[in-house]
UniProtKB/TrEMBL annotation:
Its main location: nucleus. It is found in: Nucleus. GO terms for biological process: regulation of transcription by RNA polymerase II. GO terms for cellular component: nucleus. It comes from the Eukaryota. The keyword DNA repair does not apply. Residues 411-432 have a biased composition (Polar residues). This is C2H2-type domain-containing protein.
Length: 469
DNA sequence: ACTGCCGGGAA
DNA sequence: TTCCCGGCAGT
């Protein structure tokens, strides 16, 4: 065996040299003793130790090199921020469920202001008793929520109150909503084919950005869960935001409150008297409720060519919410996670020692530079799983395939969304053996001697992790 | 011939 | 899990 090694080390063999091997040491034979000085001046005591030393050494260095750690940290932080932003509201109290979607509407009843909810979410103060329609819409929302997930709420809570009330009202009103969704209401058509729940999307909503595709999928799965009556359903996400969109011909107004939209319609389109809260219900026909999924929104953003640094533009047109919105709905909106889309989003994994390190690390696309730590906090909630090196396509030069195969399994943590995105591309890796990166790898760079300088992977004869392509 | 590294195996 | 290597494939 040692002989083998020698083969690999043609010139190293002579005197003392030769990269140590655990075995070699046992064999005693060559290694004079424990001590040695490597060509580059390192001083080793024993084989094992040498490795350790090296390891540490390498770690430090490499981390510096790509400072993957730094970036990761940032990523994580951001991640948490966002998540907690959502999660906090999302779970915690049962009541909190509703508030997420439309705090203003779900807890509107001037009668019972929820202490909890309000403690979590800043309730807009300009909230006024406004028209019934307001409540109706709200009720409908609640209703559907409830209907899809029975038992979610404790019947004794005031929420139920609200719900039942809402129900009644919605009945009296004539939106028909059967338990399994399927709404019919004005212009709304079911642009969401297989979705049982009624995300009131209509053409209007469509224009409201959101490539609803993935969105729908999500929704689909979600509601599926509901149908299965999960005892603790929906603990995640639902960063849904309900908005109201004016359907008037060329009016694209979107407001966050129904009262707002009603007022808008009344005054602007119906030419009614502005200030009065009076509503004859006619406005109802001119606006519709739409749900905006923050998650999807941002996800969509990150999706667009995550790995390609070339696409730098701010990109997607964010629904220009009218000023009104921001006014009546203070800080709450998480809107801006989209500030990301940072070109360098994350392309990930890499850490020397991935064979030792457990978690995937995301790094900025730039090949190897000490990415200054700040480097725009690329928000990457969804962290690891998502993006995966877009197109292994034959071209696109720069990133040749390479990392693909091996890594993929490593990081695909929880999230099950198999990624609709480029399925076709994925196959590429399997068949052929991969183009072979172009960059010089540790082996070449350092040579057989100085093997100890190689990255671990290289030493293991695995794909180099220090010089990826 | 050499390099890169997959797949597999021993410890 | 860590470490190593046979052997294939690209250069
Ligand atoms: Zn390497």
């Amino acid at each position: 065996m040692t002989s083998k090694r020698l083969l690999e080390q043609p010139r190293a063999g002579d005197s003392t040299r030769e990269p140590v091997t655990g075995k070699a040491m046992h064999e005693g034979a060559f290694r004079n003793f424990g001590k040695e000085i490597s060509p580059n001046g390192h001083y080793f005591t024993s084989t094992r130790e040498m490795h350790y030393i090296h390891k540490k050494f390498a770690c430090g260095r490499e981390e510096d090199e790509q400072s993957s750690g730094g970036v990761l940290k940032y990523g994580c932080t951001a991640h948490h921020l966002i998540l907690s932003g959502i999660r906090l509201q999302d779970q915690t109290h049962p009541e909190a469920l509703s508030p997420v979607r439309e705090p203003g509407h779900l807890l509107p009843s001037p009668v019972t202001p929820h202490p909890h909810a309000s403690s979590i979410i800043p309730v807009p103060h300009d909230r006024r008793p406004s028209g019934h329609a307001d409540k109706e819409v709200m009720a409908a929302t609640v209703l559907t929520t409830l209907s899809t997930s029975p038992l979610v709420l404790n019947p004794s809570s005031s929420a139920s109150d609200l719900a039942s009330k809402g129900w009644k009202e919605s009945l009296s009103a004539s939106y028909s909503s059967s338990t399994s969704g399927n709404w019919s209401w004005d212009a709304s058509d079911q642009s969401v084919p297989s979705t049982p729940s009624p995300p009131l999307s209509n053409d209007a909503g469509k224009s409201f950005l959101l490539s609803s595709q993935s969105d729908d999928n999500n929704e689909d799965t979600e509601s599926t869960h509901f149908l299965f009556e999960d005892p603790i359903p929906r603990k995640r996400k639902n960063s849904m935001k309900v908005m109201f969109k004016c359907l008037w011909k060329n009016c694209e107004k979107v407001l966050s409150t129904s009262s707002g939209i009603q007022r808008h319609i009344r005054t602007v389109h119906l030419g009614r008297n502005g200030d009065s809260d009076y509503s004859d219900g006619e406005e109802d026909f001119y606006y519709s409720e739409i749900e905006v999924n923050m998650d999807t929104l941002s996800e969509g953003l990150s999706n667009l060519t995550p790995t390609s640094p070339t696409t730098s533009g701010p990109a997607p047109v964010f629904p220009v919410l009218t000023g009104d919105v921001s006014r009546s709905e203070p800080a709450r909106m998480i809107h801006t996670p989209l500030s990301q889309s940072a070109p360098s989003a994350l392309c990930h994994i890499r850490t020397d020692h991935a064979y030792q390190a457990t978690t995937p690390v995301s790094i900025p696309s730039m090949p190897s530079e000490p990415p200054h730590s700040e480097d725009r906090i690329s928000v990457s909630w969804q962290s690891p799983p998502v993006i995966y090196k877009g197109l292994p396509g034959p071209m696109t030069q720069i990133r040749t395939v390479s990392i693909g195969e091996k890594r993929q399994p490593v990081n695909h943590t929880t999230v099950s969304k198999a990624h609709t995105n480029n399925t076709s591309a994925s196959k590429a890796t399997t068949g052929t053996r991969k183009p072979r990166g172009e960059a010089k790898k540790c082996r070449k760079v350092y040579g057989m001697e100085k093997r100890d300088l190689w990255c671990t992977a290289c030493r293991w004869k695995k794909a180099c992790q220090r010089f990826t392509d």
